[in-house]
Amino acid sequence: xxxxxxxxxxxxxxxxxxxxxxxxxxxxxxxxxxxxxxxxxxxxxxxxxxxxxxxxxxxxxxxxxxxxxxxxxxxxxxxxxxxxxxxxxxxxxxxxxxxxxxxxxxxxxxxxxxxxxxxxxxxxxxxxxxxxxxxxxxxxxxxxxxxxxxxxxxxxxxxxxxxxxxxxxxxxxxxxxxxxxxxxxxxxxxxxxxxxxxxxxxxxxxxxxxxxxxxxxxxxxxxxxxxxxxxxxxxxxxxxxxxxxxxxxxxxxxxxxxxxxxxxxxxxxxxxxxxxxxxxxxxxxxxxxxxxxxxxxxxxxxxxxxxxxxxxxxxxxxxxxxxxxxxxxxxxxxxxxxxxxxxxxxxxxxxxxxxxxxxxxxxxxxxxxxxxxxxxxxxxxxxxxxxxxxxxxxxxxxxxxxxxxxxxxxxxxxxxxxxxxxxxxxxxxxxxxxxxxxxxxxxxxxxxxxxxxxxxxxxxxxxxxxxxxxxxxxxxxxxxxxxxxxxxxxxxxxxxxxxxxxxxxxxxxxxxxxxxxxxxxxxxxxxxxxxxxxxxxxxxxxxxxxxxxxxxxxxxxxxxxxxxxxxxxxxxxxxxxxxxxxxxxxxxx
Length: 589
Description:
Strand content: 15-25%
Largest sheet: 5 strands, antiparallel
Number of helices: 21
């Protein structure tokens, strides 16, 4: 709280002004009876305590009322005073300085001559009103000082909060002149560029400055866009957000917020990836194969080298990749999983590498960041890399060799720090021989190979996996299954599981839905599981052979040529580029 001592200079000015007008000495004391202002013979005593002679002031502070002493030295209040009966004062008028109903000080008018005493006595009412007004003036100054101190404190508090933000924040007027900035912004920009009254055009390119200032003209409520900022030491990739700040008469300033994409990636990774928490202990299995995989994963996790995980569909390649990421020094960064088969070929390049503003028809304004760039300082998992088109394989090779990416429509390459973990179920060696997979990329991704055996080759893992899935579906389906019958176990042992662990999970879920007691039996298995094992001749189930025969029959049914290929692609439900690629792959002319 502000005290009278905080406005002592102002109080001294008031005292001197009163003394000049009325030709009578003035003194002002605070709550502790310290003289904070005085004129005439009291001027030398400013700053000293009035404790031994300020008995009248003490009473005024106690009661909060004015006091008039017509007979100083004789009045009962003067009893304790050493000058009692021999006081030099002839007349005394003291008024409280009240703030919010409480006396915080007192102002006194003291006469030392009979003429002064007579003047006040004859005009006592007027002098009392005058002194009251002077006390109110000092009280108003105190309130003003208190209000200003509150503003300063609030401003310091808000600045402290703003400086705690990780984001770089600055505000400008509608012409682009910098009004305020936080410490994060001060660290980002050099001090010779960023200071009050500097301009946005010293920080950003002209096009970005124009877009920011457009916010203040109400052409857009908020803008968000990517920017690259270059300083003498570094190049930063940031997300810029500009929004209007309204006053009583409309928009008066603009706030500009900058956030590094690395930080955004970490937040997205932490908040949106549901299954990013896999640990190496989630890789279940008691077989020698799975024990070796867990041990190898622990060793390679600390490395920056590329890993190639090979195994049939459903063996848990992505789970292993996530486990390696979470064991690695990059675990705070993003794990970006990209399925090269699931994303249409026409979109895969833009998903991986992003594009610049206006790169092609339909491109989003401001461009788009690619998934590889978004995963900077993290891990990129390229699932089914064997299905990646050849032209994209070349761009992935550049990422691995130069650690740089170039967006579609871009003219400069940006550095990226990502670890690549690739996975495939296909025979890459055969694909290289056919010219379907780049040999140089193969050797770049096959630095640390990890092979996951299919479930049919490690049946000793079945009991542990079954127990794990039963526990999961007991919770999800509110069941209480604890046992598996011998017939149930034998059927699982006899089955080849072409879908591997994913298919086993499906089998257990199906059985758990049908179970009504604590034991799973053969009756709870799907029909295909009850019909015994598959025939020895499995060649007719080969997907590549079936696909080749289907494409060949469809293509031969058309008139050939470009029109025939277009019709065949529509009939097969695939894109024309995909059809051309498959025709070349299967040597169909």
